[in-house]
Amino acid sequence: MADAVIVGAVRTPVGRRRGALSGVHPVDLSAQVLRALAERTGLEPGDVDDVIWGCVSQVGEQAWNVGRNAVLAAGWPESVPGTTLDRQCGSSQQALHFAAAAVLAGQADLVVAGGVESMTRVPMGSSIAPSAADPTLVGLPYGDQVRNRYRDREGFAADEPVPFNQGVGAELIARQWGLSRRQLDEFALASHEKAAAAQDAGAFDPEITPVDVPDGSKVVADEGIRRDTTLARLAELPTPFRADGSVTAGSASQISDGAAALAVTSSEWAGRHGLRPLARIHTAVVAAADPVLMLTAPMPATAKALRRAGLGIEEIGVYEVNEAFAPVPLAWLAETEADPARLNPRGGAIALGHPLGGSGARIMTTMLQHMRDNGIRYGLQTMCEGGGMANATIVELL
What we know:
Its EC number is 2.3.1.16. This protein is α+β, with helices and mostly antiparallel strands. The protein has a domain at about 280-395: Thiolase/Chalcone synthase (Peroxisomal Thiolase, Chain A, domain 1). It is about 35% helix and about 20% strand. The protein contains 12 helices and 12 strands. It has helices spanning about 25-40, 65-75, 90-105, 145-150, 165-175, 180-200, 230-235, 265-270, 300-310, 325-335, 350, 355-375; strands spanning about 5-10, 15, 50-55, 80-85, 110-120, 210, 220, 255-265, 280-290, 320, 380-385, 390-395.
């Protein structure tokens, strides 16, 4: 039976905004992780049928097909193609889905999936900045029909350039699921504590490739973990999305720089080429829900994935639910009745950061390492995405 397996997973450290990775061009950051993937797996770059690369802000340094440019920057053969996709925060998770589909369909033997985002160098919103050719033009991503459809909805700012606001959506979720400010702060603090414990134990070391930076040094560890934060400090932060709200910068994902890559092939092809399968891509789905709430689609995506897999939530040994905002995984827990102890065991985007286009592959890399370290058979990853979408992926350890 045809299958799709992951034979390599590697990521850069996640850098803070204006941090150690801010001096590295996103194409060069991508190239470093591609080279590390080839070195660690033993794959021959010339065998790669395609590189599918996630990136959200495809403008400026991340424009003109960063996936193909990364292949060239990595020194891989010019015969290796590359493409770039945008499913918002789930871009590189979707890249993994496309890679698996190509292998399962017999259209490709070996595909690299991953992504990058340098949010320092290409800030969010850059893609709707005034045109360099004509500064009077601003390309707004929503026309009148979308604006009119949701004009009277709470949380939809019809007259704003971008009327859908993730932070406002997070506030609406917190209210709908009855999540208090203290619950959000406690979740955020736990994310930092879990990430710090994992970093101290060296749990991230096998999945990270050091990154060379312009000053000649190497970045070897995630920068976003705040070891000195407390509930008291978190409680002092303002609520920028609602004056009477509960979501703060402390309970939101960090703006970050980073990249990650996964190698996907079949068991048969891996065996013939001396590559070791790490996990089978058991089930891969995408779902969508209310674009104003925006962040609730991981719930139907999870249900869809479990249904197609024929598994119950209790059979999943680890769940990675992206911490875009603390209400997202907390509401997901409430809806799925999943075991909180299995959720984001090494912390999440609140502590580690969220380099948009690279986060899906980063999370999968971290989850696979946790599964291998703990002998966990099934893992589930899901991410909320702009536009009210979500990917969900179930992998099986081999």
